[in-house]
Amino acid sequence: MNTNERWLIEESKKGNIDAFEQLIKDHKKSAFNIALRVLRNVEDAEDASQEALIKVFRNIKSFNMESTFKVWLYRIVVNTCIDFKRRKSITAISIDETMDLGSGREIQREITDHSSNPDALIERSFDKQMVNDAINMLEDDFKTIILLRDIKGFTYEEISQILDCNLGTVKSRLSRARKRLKEILEREMKADS
């Protein structure tokens, strides 16, 4: 953590709103993007990311600087999205489809290329829509861990802090998520044959 960020955190803890705005300025877009990937709806993502930033402001005094501010903030964003989904009964997550941002703007989301992530499955002749559908069939814990590791590229240690679980749990959950995704995809491939 750099000196400026540390100072901004300390000032934010004292209630300095300008310091807080400066502190979160570079994180607002990423917080929204995480919420958008989890919630699949621009309005819900805006609401959830805004709600998360309010929680960050209200709880900044409890930030103990044991992790980076970015990891702490993203943990709050992910947990807020999970709570938001529960409240609104949103069950789908999509990581590879065109999304309507309104005003005629669209974005295409793609999976980053890692050897054992869902993109590797696509390279093995799985249809992208089938992968998307398979991810939607995963339990929320599995969806979240694939999002954090394979989409956002967080390290295992950062995911451990975001999800508030130990490193072994992160690794085993990611392994089980990828295995479960592979099983779903193989089953779907057989059904389409």
Outline of the structure:
By secondary structure, this protein is mostly helical. It has helices at residues 3-13, 17-24, 28-39, 42-59, 69-88, 118-123, 128-137, 140-151, 156-163, 167-192, and strands at 98-102, 105-108. The chain folds into two domains: 3-88, Rna Polymerase Sigma Factor, Chain: A (Orthogonal Bundle), CATH 1.10.1740; 109-192, Arc Repressor Mutant, subunit A (Orthogonal Bundle).
What's the CATH superfamily of the largest domain, by name? RNA polymerase sigma factor, region 2, helix turn helix motif
CATH class of the largest domain: Mainly Alpha
Gyration radius, in Å: 18 Å
Q: Which parts are unreliable, with pLDDT below 50 for 5 consecutive residues or more?
A: 90-96, 109-116, 121-126
Strands, count: 2
N-to-C SSE string, H for helix and E for strand: HHHHHEEHHHHH
| DSSP helical segment count | 10
Q: Average pLDDT value?
A: 80
Overall 3D geometry? globular
Protein structure class: mainly alpha
Order of strands, main sheet, comes to 1-2
Structurally, the number of domains stands at 2
Biggest sheet overview? 2 strands, antiparallel
In the CATH hierarchy, the architecture of the largest domain is Orthogonal Bundle
Can you describe what's shown?
This protein is mainly alpha-helical and 193 residues long. The chain folds into 2 domains: 3-88, RNA polymerase sigma factor, region 2, helix turn helix motif (Rna Polymerase Sigma Factor, Chain: A); 109-192, Winged helix-like DNA-binding domain superfamily/Winged helix DNA-binding domain (Arc Repressor Mutant, subunit A, Orthogonal Bundle), CATH 1.10.10.10. 68% of the residues lie in helices and 5% in strands. Strands 1-2 form a two-stranded antiparallel sheet. Helix 1 (3-13) packs across helix 2, helix 3 packs across helix 4 and helix 9 (156-163) packs across helix 10. The protein is globular. The model is unreliable at 90-96, 109-116 and 121-126 (pLDDT under 50).
